[in-house]
Batch of 3 targets.
Target 1
Amino acid sequence: MPACLHCGEKWTWKDTFKRIASFKNEMVCPYCKKSQYQAKSSRQKTSMLIVAPSLVLPVFVLFDLYLPLLLLCYAAAFLLTPFFVKLAKENAPLW
Ligand SMILES: [Zn+2]
């Protein structure tokens, strides 16, 4: 889980997840309320994580696999994203 670049407080999974789920690039620290951004490398990792289940979608359709399992993959990907969040003081373009 990331630590605030301003006050150094470590964010909880819930804090981090809430900030990701808002889909805003700017992340406000729950402790000192200062803005920071998700680091570029971290954003690439988390977006790959979210896209990954879509890559196996054709396999699910082709082999007539249990689709709720895919939803479970999506849920797992979302739940794991806070572990890959790193913060940066500057906003940078994704690619
Ligand atoms: Zn802070």
Target 2
Amino acid sequence: MHHEKHSFCRICEPFCPVVASVDGAGKVVSLRPDESHPSGGTACHKGLSFLDVHNDPDRLDHPLRRTNGREQPRGLFVETDWNPALADIGARLAAIRDAHGPNAIAGYLGNPIAFDAPAYAAYLPFMEAVGSRMRFGANTQDMVNKLTGAGHIYGSTRSALIPDLHNSDYLLCMGANPKVSRWTMASIPNDGLDILRKLRARGGTVRFINPRRTESSTEEIGPTHFIRPGTDVYFLAALLNAIIARGGVDRERVARFGKNADALFDFAARYPADRVAAVTGIPVAEVWLIAREICEAPSAAVYMSTGVSQSRQGMLAYWLSEMINFVTGNLGRKGGTIKPNGLIDAFPPMVGSQQVSTSVGDFTLPDPIGPGLLPTTMLPDLIEAGDVRALILWSGNPLISTGGEERMRKAFEKLDLLISIDIFRSATAELADYVLPATSWLERKDINLVGMGMQAIPYVQYTEAIEAPGGNRRDAPWILARIAQEMGIASVFDENPGIEDVSGAIIDQLLANRGLTRAQLASMPSQTLLLDPLDPESFYTRCLRHPDGRIDCCPPAFAEAGLFERCDRIFDELAGEPDDMLKLVNIRTPYHHNGWMPNVARFRRGRNAENPLRIGPADADRLDLFDGDQVRIVTQEGGVDAEVLVDASMGPGTAAMTHGFGNHRTYGMRVAQRRPGVNVNAVMPMGPEAFEPLSNMSWISAVPIRIEKIDRPE
Ligand code: SF4
């Protein structure tokens, strides 16, 4: 006898509502969109294919203990029980902390933890209990620039806004491809871009700024203005200049809510459109056209996403995009950018930045009690130097998702202890001393925590575990709490020794912020409570957390960190580059999503099995390249070989590859290993020049490459 349960997908920001059909044995047999859900009830093929991940025979069922040396690329593992595994891990971590201090224990937070509310909430208290500031994570390859930027501009990392697409008359969309990747840091229902069609239908305009024409940029939705990769900050400065020159600044609003506006305008003045056009590739007339449209639109939003974030100056670009929204009067305004209601409508002040001194230099940990992370590009150096001796990975796979794979592998061999908490034996887990089996999102209770405060339709949804955990899998918060207990540091077991449902207790605490309980939510349709919409203008009273309650239009920390001088230096570098310089950017396809899908056979068939190097026809002609040619892609970090795919969507001077591939040594994921593809991140820059100071965001896109043809044997 089948029955149905409401839940939601936890792969990306929309948290799409789904209905799981469960058979008499308690197994989920199918997933479909929850069409009755107030968010509109849509879900994409990736989420609806999640049973392929959940039921994968390569899923981890039991804790694994390594029996051979980490210098062996293929781990030999034996199954073990939780108690001996956790006792050994706890004792070894405690010994490392006692001998080398708490910072010798580092944590790395993978992207899936952002979609696991109890684990996300458990991570910071665990690291605080350890006493370690060595916090790393996939966010430095994704969007930590936005969080840190919001902290400096608004005073709280939680104050980042989203475009009000339901009401907007104009969208300038930069470095994003929402048709394929949805909206980063904006939880907007996955509606196949209907929201943009409606914007157009009410007479609005959408323009994309991208180095390639993405699937989102169609005649129906809006055109692409091709930008040279990594030059967005200069385009935005030029756009701000043009807006100022047109008289598009809402001086009254800026004076009322802002400070340091003159310093912002002085910065922008360095980069007028006619100075930057040759660097950005966007003609002066197009900058002025966009400036006029933004000034004349009844409401407008500039939105920038991952493509910009990853390209060397992500926080400065975020700052300028926010400032354009602010000075034009569109920030905190219907149809502009808004800060929606959330489960926790609180905006803790960013507690400055903390200096972390190490043998390889001093680093800034932004917002140490918030989402701040140290630069992942420095992790191998910190391990090699002996500063980091143990590493705990929470659903993290840094060998594939960060730069410099070979450097990272060599460094990981030197660790005293490497722990991976995951649902698979990933490429990085293959090197671990212990691989601890976590639950999938169908096996754990949860709420849509991270999406809240960023939702176009604000709601809180609760889900039970839809299926009992298979094998000996446990929720990540329980695993962390048990490790803490074995280390003899603070854990949830101190106050509640017998607690089994650690995740439930964390969810109860989170819901209590709104006076809610799990039982209340469980009794509601789709287990969902719609939150009241808020007046967009309330942003100015709810979300500004500098002591003076103002928006800092030019945070002094930017100049102190040397970001403006660096910006000038990079501009000179770019201006001096040869015209035929190729830059490598990231591209996501509908069949890949970071590390979620590499072992799903149906997503690894035909062209989807590989991640070719895409290059535009003009560049292919110039380099005498054809589809299927083998080339070596060379950067300062090394080279990888790939097959060429000539792709007319690519702008001039732009090459693109999909990351998340390169699994030829991922022996625990058999489909991924048979269809490994190329780890393009292996040649992304590493070290002190490879991250943006202050935000610690990795430079992992818009990277200069050289292409060497590999001749086929006659
Ligand atoms: S859009 Fe994201 S959250 Fe929604 S179903 Fe697809 S993968 Fe899941």
Target 3
Amino acid sequence: ALPLVKEDQLTGFLLVGAKRSGDPYFSEDLDLLSTLASQAAIAVTNAQLYAEVVLVNEYVENILKTMESGVVAVSVEGKVTLFNSAAERMAGLEAASLRTGPVERLPGALADLIQATLGDGVPRLQVERTLASADRRVTPVVCSTSPFSDAQGRILGAVLVFSDLTRLKELEDERRRAARLASFQSLASGIAHEIKNPLVAIRAFAQLLPRKFGDEDFRENFSRVAVREIDRINDLVERLRTLSTPSKPLQPLDLRGPIEETLELLRVRLEDRRISVERVYDEQLPGTLGEPSQLKQLFLNLFLNALEAMEPGGTLTIRLKGRGNGEAGLLVEVVDTGCGIPEGLPEKVFDAFFSTKPQGTGLGLAICRGIADVHRATIRVENNPAGRGAVISLAFPAAVEMPAEVRG
Ligand SMILES: Nc1ncnc2c1ncn2[C@@H]1O[C@H](COP(=O)(O)OP(=O)(O)OP(=O)(O)O)[C@@H](O)[C@H]1O
Ligand SMILES: [Mg+2]
């Protein structure tokens, strides 16, 4: 019997019987047998290791298969090495068509992120993206990437993990609807109040009319007040209509279009008040989805507020830039050099009928918020931390990116 030894560990025995010739074992035979035994020991260990690797592989594959999150791995050469079933489901793509293919075959939203990490070795965390599959299904996802490297620290590839945000977005929509419903009540009471006042004035005059018909002054007064008050109601109704118009479908657009058209509308007023307009636009701007006439309405309300807040000679600055922090999307800032938002009011200014102006209806920003909602944009007001005036910022989500197949 010969021991099979691997790294001082006994892994088995090699048992040999008597020679068929009946000869004894000579020392050359023993040398041969011990060489054989040491080779056999290596082979046995390798077989054991192989079985272990297969097991571990199966284990990892099972985990990847049952995971709710999508997992994508790309080698440093830019080849897709892993695309699990959750990733298939969310992206509407088959792993078989991607595996060992170039990273560019991944949906654009994922390819960019993973390439960025491959490029600089820096992880990207919790980045929101939108996946569109060939059948036009749109899935919002949140992605994180991380590089992986060998013991010497050389980058071997990068892995991207992403999860479906659909349910979360639905909850967000539900919350918005609930908030809208809640504001409906205060809106209704505001409307009632706004219509009641002019009606009271008109009624008082109408009651006096039979008695005072002969009074020239009275007739003139009546005509003036009635027209003014009716105009007020008419104005209110007009603005309320924009609050309630069902939105038309959003289309891909360049926000500079509606911004310029709105500025053109206001050109005379801006010149009269010697307000200069500064445009600070990033060279590379992500696309957005929008409805042009609603966006014009939104910018009109914001620019009018800025105009009303400024003394002659002020500056209206419009900034357009990417959202940053690895987030796709567009940020618009409307900055003025006016009086600023009154202390402690930032949230109130969005309430319908909240106004600090004698002639204001207080519907401007309420309408803006409604339009922003339709565009899934968030709107915030704050005072300029770097000086005078207010900053209204709008964060638009990125336009949906088409998967590689659709992009062609
Ligand atoms: N750029 C700004 N600078 C300072 N205050 C602002 C600015 N924009 C809005 N506000 C404040 O928010 C309030 C609400 O604005 P909103 O546009 O909703 O109504 P309004 O301008 O008062 O009335 P309307 O828009 O109907 O003429 C304003 O009355 C003002 O106090
Ligand atoms: Mg306004």
